[in-house]
Specification:
about 290 residues; 5-stranded mixed β-barrel; alpha+beta; 5 helices; 4-stranded antiparallel sheet; 14 strands
């Protein structure tokens, strides 16, 4: 996760000693702090230091009986306020650290989406009171990107856009029916896949790949919460890291009908982002869940 510090404006190499100075300073003057009592002697602490609007560095650790904060780990964060998925999420603990991964089955993508849970303190508080993990009703996704490029859009008529929306809704409904055991839905999906494969094979020799592929959202690498995506840019905002003065793009990208906020260092992005163009890149996905 430290390789994505560049996404929130810490792109230039920073020595460990300087990072320690930064973290000590952030711990003394956090912009947000939440404390949960673990046992009689220790408290669990989350501190956020904002370096630009809705993004910065999160620090997690414990506070001893003397009020001394002991840092366990830190990571870059960004917060989105747009709901990306309204499917149920389940959660599980990641390794030895007190961090959690969320999993939701969104039929628009066709695969299980795994993300790093940013508001895990709410979950930890719920767990300490009830002894069980809650479920999430909806989630707001954010993707921190360490590299990406801007691609021109595909020219479409209003009729083509509407037809694509109807086809996407139909396919999502069929996937849901197929997972429930509907044999006719399974057969229809198989036939659609075969027809699409034949159509692509026929057109690939005449068209550019990014003309045939409108958007995609798929897992990449060995980390379960990292994805490659391409989608349409809906909004663009240029921010500045208050410490390093590096410039950061925050874009609202819609990939496979899923809206998510993508954050990338300006120097890591090839091209100029504008509404209507497409973003293609690799992201580390995190999400803020709303618990039932």
């Amino acid at each position: 996760m430290h390789s994505y510090l560049r996404s929130v404006g810490f792109r230039n190499e920073i020595r460990k000693r300087q990072w320690k100075e930064y973290l000590d300073q952030f711990a003394k003057e956090p912009d947000y702090m939440k404390i949960i009592q673990i046992d009689e002697e220790n408290n669990m602490v989350l501190m956020l230091k904002e370096v630009a609007k809705d993004m910065g560095i999160a620090m997690c650790g414990e506070e001893d009986e003397n009020g001394q904060f002991h840092l366990e780990y830190y990571y870059p964060y960004s917060i989105s306020h747009v709901v990306s998925s309204r499917t149920v999420s389940t959660f599980s603990k990641q390794g030895e650290k007190d961090s959690y991964a969320g999993l939701c089955e969104d039929y628009r993508v066709g695969v299980s989406l795994i993300y790093y849970l940013t508001n895990f303190m709410e979950m930890r508080e719920f767990f300490s009171k009830t002894g069980r993990l809650p479920k999430g009703n909806e989630v707001c996704f954010t993707g921190l990107s360490d590299r990406g490029k801007i691609i021109l859009p595909i020219r479409k008529t209003k009729q083509q856009i509407e037809s694509a929306k109807i086809a996407s809704q139909k396919r999502t409904s069929m996937i849901e029916s197929a997972r429930s055991g509907d044999a006719s839905a399974m057969e229809s999906l198989t036939l659609d896949e075969m027809n699409l494969y034949t159509k692509l094979n026929r057109q690939i020799s005449k068209c550019d790949m990014y003309t045939l592929i409108d958007s995609f959202f798929m897992p990449t690498g060995v980390e379960c919460d990292q994805y490659s995506l391409m989608g349409d840019i809906e909004e663009v905002e240029l921010l500045t890291n208050s410490i390093t003065k590096e410039e950061i793009y925050r874009m609202m990208v819609v990939a496979n009908d899923i809206p998510l906020s993508v954050v990338i260092n300006k120097d890591d992005l090839l091209g100029v982002p504008e509404k209507g163009r497409r973003f293609k890149g690799k992201i580390w996905m995190m999400g803020e869940a709303v618990f039932s």
